[in-house]
Write a structure and sequence with these properties.
The chain has about 600 residues and is of the alpha+beta class. It has three domains: about 180 residues, OB fold (Dihydrolipoamide Acetyltransferase, E2P) (Beta Barrel); about 200 residues, BirA Bifunctional Protein, domain 2 (2-Layer Sandwich), CATH 3.30.930.10; about 70 residues, no CATH class. Helices cover about 35% and strands about 20% of the residues. It binds one RNA strand of 76 nucleotides through helix 2, strand 1, strand 2, strand 3 and strand 6.
Length: about 600
RNA sequence: GACUUGGUAGCUCAGCAGGUAGAGCACAUCCCUUUUAAGGAUGGGGUCCUGGGUUCGAGCCCCAGCCAAGUCACCA
């Protein structure tokens, strides 16, 4: 490692950064103008940035920084063998500092953990010049800055594994203060918890809340585990269009967009089902896709407008076979993530150990209501539904009633993973009719923690039946069901070509991630959940009108800060008051420009009246 | 979409009956050689979400709006 990138030699004053002097000068002016709107802490940091540059230190060096160890490894291994790590180099963000005269402690955080640093003035600055320690380290560095350090590991008197720093290098100066979260013996103080702030500024959340990072690592491992299972089984991972001329495969409202060259409306996909089935028609026997789907519907802690779904289609199989696959795959995921089939989520411990309970929908309803509704006709079923407090109306057929009763009385009670099978045909236009039970389809959902986590069926491959089902959906659409499916002629053509009997599965990756990471809301397993856009900050006027009136450019932002966003605003102003305001701001902001003269300000106000 | 709660310093939060806007951490200045959320001292920092209204006076009361969270509804 080149020693020159460290240490006092890097800011040798005899080699100032003359080449960039001009740029620096311009930059400072911009910074000065910007700083009028900045908080005091942000201004201090910009000030520190200048001072670093004055010392010849590049706060944003171009070259990389060679790291030879990660914090986690030191913390895990060093206590067992104190002879290790006698020349380490690592980098991270400063998360805390405790400065006491000529010795200091700091904490830096890399991707893996936080580790304490010890700095001693006379080791950081062996010669006479103590600037690198006294000025650069103590005064010009802040929490949030990123540095690289080199030194050896030791244990402090307090018993904490610490890096004794011999040299350090600034890798990035941070201009915004970070929320400061402190922790002692597992207790967290001043936690950064406001969900809005956390989701809008996820980078801050990730920096100060290490457990958040852990959730996303687990999510990634979950997907890795699932993908591994499917690839091992020999299925092909594919990609299908997000932009679709006709949306289908689910009952949901789409997002609509427009392609200029084709001069046509396109929709963002709500499911990839119809495309994956075309691939089964085409002769692939097993295809799957991890897909972002988009549904233009309400948002809640279980719904985000874009979400991830894994869909799998396997030829020559049926829904019974698919149930076994789901059990096996999800059990494997639980073990890969937690080392056991048991997963704690909220107040419940969920056990994914096979086999899971299996109920038909009728059985589930009988189990939770004590009534067997399988033989009821629509009228008596409606009466039964009303009797247990469900609102009904005449548009609801038998299938919808069954679904309502199940949703109201059963779903929330199913905490342990449970398969619910054999759904009413009306709700499932893409599923094959049940081999033995009229009016039902061969479909199952897995319910876990009171929520659906997957949906699967023996796929309908009878093209005549499929066309009829689509036409029923069209009828629903005409009656005002905004989520009814549209008829996809191209898909029907594919089915008419002949699709083998096929089992299909859709599994909600976000929902499963919530359970596997013990997260209460979908926003906690998405890096950037959809949020309402922040109110546009009041449109900043350019200030051109001030300049046209001959007011010096340097005073424009100050005038705006003083409450005169544009020239017109000066018309009514008292010139003496404006003069006082400008002088006050000049002092407050420590602006490096001469104060205006009263008559100058008076002339500006006059000009504003003329214009 | 309905209801409830909330929005005050960079962060976490107080604030009252309507009377000069507060604390802790962070920040700044000074002192201090191994500290542990946190050494000591001093100090700076605010669009009290926005806009109206009531009032001599509004962070607080009223109206409207914006944003968020929770519950419910919708979501095969």
């Amino acid at each position: 490692m080149d020693p020159k990138i460290f240490n006092a030699s890097t800011f040798d004053r005899s080699s100032p950064v003359t080449t960039s002097f001009f740029i620096t000068f311009a930059l400072r002016k911009i910074i000065m103008i910007m700083s009028i709107q900045l908080s005091e802490q942000e201004q201090f940091r910009r000030q520190a940035l200048h001072e670093l540059m004055d010392l010849g230190v590049d706060p944003y060096p171009a070259e990389g920084f060679a790291v030879n160890v990660i914090a986690r490894e030191i913390l895990d291994t060093f206590p067992g063998d104190n002879s290790l790590y006698q020349d380490v180099s690592l980098a991270g963000r400063i998360m805390g500092r405790r400065i006491m005269g000529s010795a200091s402690f700091a904490v830096i955080q890399d991707d893996t953990a936080r580790i304490q640093l010890y700095f001693n003035r006379d080791e950081i600055c062996p010669g006479e010049d103590k600037t690198w320690y006294n000025t650069v380290f103590k005064r010009l560095l802040d929490i949030g800055d990123i540095i690289g350090v080199r030194g050896h590991v030791f244990t402090t008197q307090m018993g904490e594994t610490t890096i004794h720093v011999k040299e350090f290098k600034i890798l990035c100066k941070s201009l915004r203060p970070l929320p400061v979260v402190k922790e002692k013996e597992g207790k967290v103080f001043d936690a950064f918890t406001d969900p809005e702030q956390r989701y809008r500024n996820r980078y801050q959340d990730l920096i100060v809340n290490p457990h958040v990072k852990q959730v996303f690592r687990q999510r990634a491992r979950m997907i890795e585990s699932m993908r591994g299972y499917l690839l091992d089984a020999g299925y092909l991972e594919v990609e299908t269009p997000v932009l679709q001329p006709i949306y289908g495969g689910a009952a949901a409202r789409p997002f609509k967009t427009f392609h200029n060259t084709l001069n046509t409306t396109l929709y963002l996909r709500i499911a990839d089902e119809l495309y994956l089935k075309r691939l089964i028609v085409g002769g692939f026997d097993g295809v799957f896709e991890f897909a972002k789907d988009f549904r233009n519907e309400g948002m809640s802690r279980f719904h985000n407008p874009e979400f991830t779904m894994m869909e799998l289609y396997v030829a020559y199989k049926d829904y019974l076979w698919m149930m076994d696959l789901v059990e096996e795959m999800v059990e494997k995921i639980a073990i890969d993530l937690h080392g056991t089939t048991k997963v704690q989520t909220g107040d419940h411990e969920i056990d994914f150990k096979r086999p899971w309970k299996r109920y038909t929908m009728y059985e589930a309803i009988e189990h939770f209501t004590g009534t067997d509704i399988s033989e009821m006709d629509e009228a008596s079923m409606r009466q039964f539904a009303e009797g247990i407090g469900i609102e009904t109306d005449n548009t609801m057929g038998r299938g919808k009633l069954i679904d309502e009763i199940f949703g109201e009385k059963c779903e929330e009670h199913l905490i342990q993973p449970t398969f619910i099978t054999d759904y009413p045909v009306e709700m499932s236009p893409l599923a094959k009719k049940h081999r033995s039970k009229p009016g039902l389809v061969e479909r199952f959902e897995a319910i876990c923690n009171g929520k659906e986590i997957c949906n699967a069926f023996s796929e309908l491959n009878d093209p005549i039946d499929q066309r009829a089902r689509f036409e029923e959906q069209l009828e629903l659409g005409k009656r005002g069901d905004t989520e009814a499916m549209v008829l996809d002629e191209d898909f029907l053509r594919a089915i008419e070509t002949g699709m083998p009997p096929t089992a299909g599965l859709g599994i909600g990756i976000d929902r499963l991630a919530m359970i596997m990471t013990n997260s209460a809301s979908i926003q906690d397993v998405l890096f950037f959940p959809q949020m309402r856009p922040e109110a546009a900050s009041a449109a900043k006027t350019t200030g051109d009108d001030f300049i046209r009136a001959g007011i010096p450019e340097v005073w424009v932002p100050v005038l705006q800060q003083a409450g005169y966003p544009e020239l017109n605003a000066l018309q009514e102003a008292n010139a003496n008051k404006v003069f006082n305001q400008l002088c006050g701001l000049r002092k407050k902001m420590k602006l490096d420009i001469p104060a205006p003269k009263p008559e100058e300000v008076r002339s500006w106000v006059e000009k504003s009246k003329i214009s």
